[in-house]
Write the structure tokens for this entry.
Amino acid sequence: MKKLFKLLPVALLLIAALAFSACQTEEDPTETPANNVETPANNAETPAATGDASNIRIALIAHSPESILDDGSFNAGAWQGIQQFAAANGLSADATRFFQPQSASDEARIDLIADAIGEFGANILVLPGFHFQASLYQAQDMFPEAMFVLLDASPQSPDGDVRIENNLVAIHYAEEQSGFLAGYAAVMEGYRNLGFMGGVPVPAVVRFGHGFIQGAEYAANSLGLSAGDVTMNFEYLFSFAPDPAHVTRAGAWFASGTEVIFAAAGGAGFSVIAAAETAGASVIGVDVDQAEDGAVVVTSAVKGLAPSVIYMLEAFRDGNFPGGVEYRFDAAIDGVGLPMASSRLQNFTQAQYDAIFAQLASGAVNVSSSMNADDIQTTLVEVTRFE
């Protein structure tokens, strides 16, 4: 067993960058964040694509019966990566499959993993979200012949022990940086009454929200705004599923003056989009580019779901699967960002985006990843938190 923390080589991600949720669990686990992250070498080379993909069978596992494939978030982003890899390597349609468990329990997830391996013949499985940390803590030992790609989590026992075996890779993302870019862009665009609606306050969602606050504060300071010129409503929905109640709640915010809501809420974000369409307001999407989910989506705080999956599948194909490793995707390796090509922002320019992104990537601008709300202090942005 080994446990390392690394960044993906820059060259690898640049190749996958064109393939550019948090967000789908009803649980509230404690995350063990990646530490001692190594900086990738500038001369990192892409492994030769000489592997044979003909025998690869890929399973994408959902965390519950309600976790759909076309969720506009984590599942959709991971599936995009799987399908792009399959197309590039000539895999047939029956070489990839999406699995949903019969219940939202660790036992059901382990049973589904067993079915994917035993009946479907999956030899590499992609599992998005914190809901898999307990089940994969067991499954990595139960199924040593299979390779696992765990997104946004680490395999962890109920007593907090984190253990990563050689058949598993855990991937994390710098959501706080992506959220920062969304908040910065919103204020630079001209929005002054902002909202954040998170799903369940798991670490990834909290990081998105806290980054959003920091980005708005940074932009307000850059523009020389006064205290209170920018306001933000901040709330967790404690759900990742669409719900008429979420439509009503978002509609009330819009009616009271909120101009744009950053919905880091998985499928619940569709409810916020529906409310924005009725109100003629705006939404910032999450995880993947949600521009196609509605004309009210002005941009999205994305993270490299598809590129990270593609890289792991390529490594598996080439016999270089880096088991026992944790990776962290951040701005330094294009692991997070805003999809400017599809953004509907009218005032925030590509040049402005490139400038702030470069500062994040270089470390000139640091964004706190703290889970503690008291650590996220503002002097210009007036934040109202709803419990």
In short: The CA atoms of residues 199 and 348 lie 27 Å apart. The chain has ten helices and 14 strands. The two ends are 41 Å apart (CA to CA). Residues 2-49 have pLDDT under 50 and may be disordered.
